[in-house]
Write a structure and sequence with these properties.
alpha/beta; Rossmann fold; Dihydrodipicolinate Reductase, domain 2; seven-stranded parallel β-sheet
């Protein structure tokens, strides 16, 4: 039996676990703090077992890793290096869907020495974005072309018929992660010039993005895109951009919340006795009942602005008490957004990814646009959970069956990884539509 340890049973773990359970000769142990979550995901599968684990207790975690052939960490990113170190110690393979941090990268030499692979960034973003980009880049190079610029967009959203709240967003993954992403600074390359966007100004830099076969969304920069020149083997490009997609209006709405101070992570001792109206009023610089007008003054918008309508819909001007567990303004915002912006039973989510390459060939110049539009299954798995979990599960299978024989710390930019994973995803209907057009040289 191939013994797989899955650490975590959160929103994106279901499709991964179900895929592995369906593989002949695989035994799956799902370890999580709340064992009932794992039991629900495993159902009546005879080759699955649920166990409780506190990942802060390293001895218990080590015992589970030692019993497995491969560990898949779906834990918060701070735990990945701990799991990786244990995998290296006991010569076990490892897969994660998260970004490679310094602590993970530092294990590369030792992982190679003991002969194990620590495969990271094998979800959707990061993951499918890397694999689909490298497929086009490598093909263009084989055809004699060189990539001059690369732009990549990705967003998880409600399907159009499920887009039923004023924010144009619902949560298919961690609400805190979504909100915290709005605090990141960004950097990209445009026409050979490096553009830096400080975190507080992130949402001020947005633009309409035409998605082939779908319509127009709103996009804004996502973190630092410059390192991907080296990751993708295109160091000479004059344009490199990675961005996030939302429905129109999201950026202006979030910029107001940033300016108001709702994304502040500083712990406050006064939250336990406040209502939403009290906190919003204090952030706006005053007290009393006319919070809407004070917020309008603070943000320098008209009191009838749609922004204030959205904040009122969210309950920021209401008298409800703040969430008992909240320690900061960001905690308050994330909890309230999750409460007011869930997917209802039967609603579909939507994942959109689009890459645009400008490629120069010896006799022509082309724009290549590759677009993925994937919908969740009503009453079943979300698109987000499928597209995060399935690439990791497929890669884990190929590692255990010997089709992926790499060692060390890796991301899925090599054909040995991305070709079998993309092929299997395509067979499941997860495919990119490609458009090629000549442009002036």
């Amino acid at each position: 039996m191939n013994k797989v340890l899955v650490l975590g049973a959160g929103l994106v773990s279901g499709p991964l676990i179900h895929y592995l359970l369906a593989q002949e000769g695989f035994e799956v142990t799902v370890a999580t703090r709340t064992v009932e979550k794992a039991e629900r995901l495993l159902g009546r599968a005879r080759n699955g077992v649920a166990v409780a684990v506190n990942v802060d207790e390293e001895r218990s975690l080590e015992d589970l890793v030692q019993k497995a052939d491969l560990a898949i960490s779906l834990l918060p990113y701070v735990y990945h290096p701990v799991v990786a170190r244990l995998c290296v110690k006991h010569k076990r393979q490892m897969v994660t869907t998260s970004y490679v941090k310094d602590a993970m990268g530092a294990l590369d030499a030792e992982a190679k020495r003991v002969g194990v692979v620590l495969l990271n960034e094998i979800g959707v973003d990061p993951g499918i974005d890397h694999m689909s980009a490298m497929e086009v880049i490598h093909r263009a190079r084989k055809e004699g072309g060189e990539v001059e610029s690369f732009t990549s967009w990705c967003g998880g959203l409600p399907a159009p018929e499920a887009n039923t709240n004023p924010f144009g967003y619902k949560f298919s993954w961690s609400p805190r992660g979504v909100v915290m992403a709005g605090k990141n600074s960004a950097r990209y390359l445009k026409d050979g010039k490096v553009i830096d966007i400080p975190g507080p100004e992130l949402f001020a830099h947005h633009e309409p993005v035409a998605i082939e076969g779908f319509g127009t969304l709103e996009g804004y920069p996502n973190r630092d895109g410059l390192p991907y020149r080296e990751t993708y083997g295109i160091p000479g490009v004059n344009g490199m951009f990675r961005g996030t997609l939302r429905y129109p209006g999201w950026c202006e709405t979030m910029k107001g919340l940033v300016d108001l101070g709702m994304l502040d992570e500083t712990e406050r001792k006064d939250l336990a006795r406040l209502s939403f109206r009290d906190l919003t009023g204090r952030l706006a610089g005053g007290a009393g009942e006319d919070v809407r007008r004070r917020v309008a003054s603070r943000l320098k918008v008209d009191p009838t602005s749609f922004l204030l309508d959205r904040y009122e819909w969210l309950g920021l001007f209401g008298t409800d008490p703040l969430p008992a567990e909240a320690k900061s303004c960001l905690d308050v915002l994330a909890a309230r957004m999750l409460e007011r912006m869930p997917y209802l039973p039967g609603e579909r989510d939507l994942l959109v990814m689009q890459h645009e390459f400008v490629v120069r060939y010896p006799s022509r110049k082309e724009r290549i646009t590759a677009t993925l539009v994937d919908y969740g299954i009503p009453g079943g798995d979300s698109s987000m959970s499928r597209l995060v979990g399935l690439p990791a599960a497929i890669a884990a299978k190929h590692i255990l069956l010997g089709a992926i024989r790499l060692t060390g710390v890796h991301t899925p930019v090599l054909p040995e990884i991305y070709e079998p994973v993309l092929a299997e995803l395509s067979a499941m209907g997860v495919t990119f539509r490609e458009k090629r057009e000549r442009i002036p040289s």
